[in-house]
Fold:
Amino acid sequence: MERFSLGNCEETKAGSAIRTLNRSSGQIEANGMADFEQGQTFTIEAGGRQIPLELSAVKPIAASPRPGGGFSLLFKGPRDIALPQATYLFTGESGSHEIFIVPVAADATGRLYEAVFN
Structure:
């Protein structure tokens, strides 16, 4: 586990998840990435079907103006189902999230979709 010190705050990085601990208040503030860890499986509903999508990458965006920092998520889905870009309700262990995804690639093992929080 990596730790980052930012004056009055400390960030802890475990895998791809980052949480910020504000030492003055003792509260942990999730910056958005904390809800997402590589390898998690989420389920979405599309066309009356439950479709599993695996979170294959979580990448921070260094130059983001977003409070808490920006990040992108890369999801891998089944090869035989092509999802159009749209907002879907992702349900997983960390809860439910409405996420806009865009198809970015496909290969013999599946289709890739990206979500960007900037």
Observations:
- The CA atoms of residues 24 and 34 lie 20 Å apart.
- Confidence is low (pLDDT under 50) at residues 1-31.
- DSSP finds no helices and ten strands in the chain.
